[in-house]
Amino acid sequence: MGITFKIDGMTVQAEENEPLIDVANRYGIKIPTLCYHNALEATGNCRICSVEVKHGSWSKLVTACNYPVWQDMEVSTKNERVMFSRKMTLKMLLARCPQVEPVQKLAKEYGISATEYPTRNFEEKCILCYMCVRACEELIGTKSISAINRGIEKTIGVPFDEASPTCIGCASCANICPTGAIPFEENDLIRKIWNKEFEMLRCTECGKAHITKAQRDYLCRKNGVKPDYFDKCDACKRKDLAHTFNSLILPDEMEIK
Amino acid sequence: MRKLTINPKLCTNCHICELACSFKQSQTLSLFKSCINTIHLVEDEITIPVTCLHCVEAACVSACPSKAIAKNEKTGAIEIDYDLCIGCKTCVGACPFGNILYDPQSSKTGVYKCNLCEGDPMCAKFCPTEAIVYS
């Protein structure tokens, strides 16, 4: 362990430049988050994880998810300034998305039942955490969605709301979304997401739809496998495995004891 | 390290392993939510319980874009870390044996697989004929 510093008066040890939230979690100090995901780069979008960092007479509010720790700093995770900031962020989020469960839950935890800010759209579900954008860019590698417009008009979407040429219809954005803000429809023939219809690939044996054709082509290109790798669904692949096992079973008289 | 051994000749196709697995994994008794599947081959008159092989060089591990699938060195099981999983289902297509399953209600991201019940597999515990043994 490289350095020592203090969180809420407790002396902790950490590696230099480790994100503050990882150190706090390791020592059992809970910092609330909305846009933090272990697999994605922390970007400090939601501001809920704000904590105060002090050193001598200097102090500053920082986002714990992407703040690198340093020797002798003093962190307060629950003081008045932090609580005021968190409550204000929560009130603004509650005004933006009054129906969203993670926000409601957190607001209740912090004793907020009403917000003085006006609500523009009661159906709004997107909290602008950017998890979908980061997953699409960093993990899938397609970079199909991004933030559109500025300020209060900001939304997440594909360029010009048109069918994106790079989107493969994997629906990872919809799966990672913590609030279910990205709608998609799916049946055995098509999957519809981001104003684009994707043809589904059906198992050559049972006909069950498992991935989109665009996703298959993308995965084949990325990993250098042949398109027939994705011909069968999981259940049919298991059946093939059972047949393979069966062909390996020795007849009774040949069994090795 | 203990190993899960399957002897299809002793399997009676009673589905108890599937029910035990589904109850442990998702607290429901459903044959569709089980990580182990008994496959009855009618023409060969045999039933073969099929589950994850926990490959040494696993396709799911190398396919996962968020490095959420890794081998647990203690049990030897290949496990999904749900804090890292983003639910892209690449592993479902990548597994050449179809042993990674998808069901939106079964886990946080919908993807699930055998994890040897953290070193105490229920399928082996409940198998009445010793077709599945963990030793």
Structural overview:
The complex is a heterodimer of chains A (257) and B (135). Chain A has two domains: 107 residues, Ubiquitin-like (UB roll); 113 residues, no CATH class. Chain A is 29% helix and 19% strand. Chain A is built from seven helices and eleven strands. In chain A, helix 2 packs antiparallel against helix 3. Chain A is globular. With 135 residues, chain B is an alpha+beta fold. Helices cover 19% and strands 19% of the residues of chain B. In chain B, the strands form four sheets. Chain B has a two-stranded antiparallel ribbon. A two-stranded antiparallel ribbon of chain B has the order 2-3. In chain B, strands 4-5 form a two-stranded antiparallel ribbon. In chain B, strand 2 and strand 3 form a beta hairpin. The N and C termini of chain B lie close together (9 Å). The chains are: A alpha+beta (257), B alpha+beta (135). Chains A and B meet through helix 4, helix 5, helix 6 and helix 7 of A and strand 2, strand 3, helix 3 and strand 6 of B.
